[in-house]
Task: inverse folding
């Protein structure tokens, strides 16, 4: 297999507290574990202090706070010395603009449309704003902000005269300075600044001369005229479809690929781009030998567009599929009953919650994107001597975006809608018209214009609007509202779909060998709502819904005197599931997560309008129940069988990730149990020293019994991962992405609690799922081992061909990895 195709990847999150030199310290461990590629979070220059790197401000330079160019050179040399390849994360959709670190954005604000970088950013210069960029960064209305001194003249770190909005510096255009002022002494300039700062009217007049317009962040969102990353005003979209912009933003990465320093590229959020297909074509042309995967969120049953020049996805499709394997479909009714009993009412369906959530974000957060589409419709109709009623058109655009049941279409500039894209649009129009019959004519006009041939900016902007509505409405809102079984509330998943069958898993894997064999196989990422072991614990509840219902009722009674009247039952239910998934957890982590969860849900509080009293009620309750000894005793007693089941399931999940078609991906630290929550919780420090020491123990030799005696530490999970990666290293021919895939039938297994697969006829993986449900059943699954001599790499035992009881095969270790010798 080509070096560009990984054997397995290991993801490391770089940030100022874990820089290049800290990463170098763990490379020996990563290589020893068996990964072939280190997969790094973005490390081009980002906003100072960035903890994630996705807010790039200068794509031509390596981050100084990670070690700069010298540190990067040390990292590349260290990788090469250990035989490791490198995979980098590329952010083509947007840049950080929240500080003066972004020289391109600074130049645009200083010079307006005449800046050589004006076309780099997706700015609607033709809006009725006199060539200004709208900046929604004031803490209050302009007059109040100026009078309070929040907006003032000052000097930046380089001593240049700037506008200061709080601590943020903005440039002054040339017309700002009176004749000869720049030649004056510093004292003269300071005197001028002092005078202007003392007269809000004069300061306002000075601001009028600028190529930006400062507006109150709450009320100004509707007129923002640059495309943002979703609703984040501090991240401005760039026009990467422009060849010059593409080259300028990708030059360093492409140089590294050509120099052999980088062999893999992960593309962040391609759905946000104007033309994803065109982007991947340009990237593939510029880096023909690179392994390229796109962070494409696929709906259940959806596959990558065939015309994308990309090797695969970043693995959310596999993550949701395998996640569903550990959810008992027979528990759906019981979990519905548990939630309804706890709430005291019938909760809305996930579909209803999605519609409500998408409507909320379209109305409140995505106003600029809707308004841009409406302005394009206005321009189109004006050009054709027609006219539209603006408010009706705005409502029609919103309803159409709401009714679209796919994330976005992929119509290309200058082309025409495909038959499928037109059908998706027509289906959405029918739904929207049925919902709002009074808008039938307006909806029909909008659809007619969106179907325009050739595809132009109007259709492209609508595609980006629907993508943002799906991401913000579902991933960042609905998934925090729907509470039946929160392990299913994952990016790209459908929480109403209660589990996946073995048949579905095998069908997916068989097709993956042909459709997208080079995709990542992920179980945790930097973006997942919950880490893999957190999800497995919560999923185990599906096997014991009656016990769960009784437990949460008891817990609510034990904690009743701790709850503020503001605390709602849905949030309390989320809190108990969170504790099942993460216990033991510190109060600080729990409070931080709950605050983020309730703000994302946007029901009682939000990021834009925090309701302090409600947030305090939730936080105080979370802290208080962690001090309630009776509750904690009950929780820990309940968790005993849940923990054992989830730990057995973790071994199966790891085994399947290592043997399914694709490229196994390990998120930092998840070789042991990881009960992290959504970011930033999943970026906490990882104890690599602990993992290195445990790996050393395993390599020195331990019996299966001794390994299993340390089940609670996660040692068996590390053992499965290590043995699977060593197999992929030693026998690469039997686990290539396109190696043959065969489901293995298991007899006497009515619950389908055993999953078994055969790769290349020479590697047989056997795992257990639905552990609690199968323990209660009275049957003995049997599996037929194909002809040949087999070695179980997890126990060292020789296994003969023929029929064997799974309990015997897995008597010393819960899962089996058999290799034909």
Result:
């Amino acid at each position: 297999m080509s070096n560009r195709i990984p054997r397995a990847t290991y993801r490391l999150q770089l940030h100022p507290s874990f820089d290049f030199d800290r990463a170098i310290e763990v490379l020996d461990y990563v290589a020893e574990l068996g990964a072939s590629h280190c997969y790094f979070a973005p490390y081009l220059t980002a906003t100072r202090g960035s903890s994630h790197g996705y807010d790039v401000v200068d794509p031509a330079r390596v981050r100084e706070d990670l070690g700069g160019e010298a540190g990067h050179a040390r990292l590349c040399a260290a990788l090469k010395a250990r035989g490791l390849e490198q995979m980098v994360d590329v952010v083509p959709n947007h840049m950080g603009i929240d500080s003066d670190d972004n020289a391109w954005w600074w130049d645009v604000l200083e010079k307006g449309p005449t800046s050589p970088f004006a076309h780099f950013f997706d700015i609607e210069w033709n809006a009725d704003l006199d060539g200004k960029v709208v900046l929604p960064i004031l803490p209050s209305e302009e007059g109040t902000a100026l009078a309070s001194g929040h907006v003032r003249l000052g000097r930046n770190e380089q001593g240049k005269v700037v506008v200061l909005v709080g601590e943020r510096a903005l440039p002054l255009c040339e017309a700002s300075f009176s004749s000869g002022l720049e030649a004056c002494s510093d004292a003269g300039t300071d005197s001028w600044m002092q005078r202007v700062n003392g007269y809000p009217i004069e300061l306002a007049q000075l601001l009028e001369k600028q190529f930006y317009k400062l507006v109150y962040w709450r009320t100004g969102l509707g007129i923002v005229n640059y495309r943002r990353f979703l609703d984040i005003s501090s991240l401005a979209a760039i026009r990467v479809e422009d060849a010059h912009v593409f080259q300028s933003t990708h030059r360093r990465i492409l140089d590294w690929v050509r120099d052999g320093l980088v062999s893999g590229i992960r593309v962040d959020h391609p759905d946000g781009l104007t033309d994803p297909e065109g982007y991947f074509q340009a990237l593939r042309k510029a880096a023909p030998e690179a392994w390229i995967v796109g962070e494409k969120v696929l709906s259940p049953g959806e596959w990558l567009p065939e015309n994308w020049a990309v090797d695969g996805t970043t693995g959310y499709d596999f993550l949701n599929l395998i996640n569903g394997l550990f959810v008992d479909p027979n528990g759906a009714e019981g979990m519905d009953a548990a939630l309804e009993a706890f709430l005291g009412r019938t909760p809305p369906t996930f579909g209803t919650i999605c519609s409500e959530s998408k409507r909320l974000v379209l109305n409140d957060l995505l106003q600029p994107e809707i308004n841009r589409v409406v302005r394009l419709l206005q321009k189109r109709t004006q050009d054709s001597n027609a006219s539209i009623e603006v408010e009706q058109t705005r409502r029609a655009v919103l309803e159409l975006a709401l009714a679209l049941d796919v994330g976005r279409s992929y119509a290309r500039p200058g082309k025409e809608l495909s038959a499928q894209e037109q059908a998706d649009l027509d289906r959405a129009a029918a739904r929207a018209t049925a919902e709002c019959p009074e808008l039938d004519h307006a909806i029909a006009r909008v659809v007619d214009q969106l179907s325009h041939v050739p595809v132009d900016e109007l259709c492209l902007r609508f595609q980006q609007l629907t993508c943002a509505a799906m991401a913000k409405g579902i991933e960042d809102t609905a998934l925090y509202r729907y509470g039946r079984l929160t392990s299913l509330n994952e990016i790209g998943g459908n929480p109403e779909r209660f589990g996946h069958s073995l048949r579905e898993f095998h069908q997916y894997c068989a097709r993956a060998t042909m459709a997208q064999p080079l995709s990542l196989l992920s179980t945790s990422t930097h973006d997942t709502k919950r880490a893999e072991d957190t999800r497995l614990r919560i999923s185990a509840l599906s096997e014991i819904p009656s016990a769960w219902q009784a437990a949460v009722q008891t817990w609510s009674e034990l904690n009743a005197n701790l709850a503020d009247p503001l605390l709602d039952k849905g949030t309390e239910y989320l809190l108990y599931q969170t504790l099942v998934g993460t216990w033991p957890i510190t109060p600080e982590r729990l409070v931080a997560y709950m605050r983020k969860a309730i703000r994302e849900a946007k029901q009682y509080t939000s990021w834009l309008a925090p309701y302090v009293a409600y947030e305090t009620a939730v936080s105080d309750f979370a802290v208080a129940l962690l001090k309630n000894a009776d509750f904690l005793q009950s929780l820990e007693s309940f968790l005993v069988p849940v923990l054992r089941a989830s730990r057995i399931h973790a071994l199966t999940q790891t085994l399947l990730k290592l043997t399914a078609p694709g490229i196994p991906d390990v998120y930092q630290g998840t070789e042991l149990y990881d009960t992290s929550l959504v970011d930033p919780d999943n970026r906490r420090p990882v104890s690599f020293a602990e993992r290195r020491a445990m790996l050393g123990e395993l390599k020195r030799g331990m019996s299966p019994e001794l390994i299993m005696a340390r089940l609670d530490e996660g040692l068996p999970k590390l053992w499965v991962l290590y043995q699977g990666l060593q197999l992929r290293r030693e026998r690469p021919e039997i686990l290539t992405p396109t190696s043959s895939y065969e489901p293995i039938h298991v007899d006497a297994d009515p619950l389908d609690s055993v999953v078994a697969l055969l790769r290349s006829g020479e590697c047989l993986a056997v795992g257990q799922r639905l552990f609690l449900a199968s323990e209660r059943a009275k049957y003995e699954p049997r599996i037929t081992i194909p002809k040949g001599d087999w070695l179980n790499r997890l126990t060292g035992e020789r296994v003969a061909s023929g029929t064997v009881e799974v309990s015997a095969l897995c008597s010393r270790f819960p899962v089996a990895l058999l290799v034909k010798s």
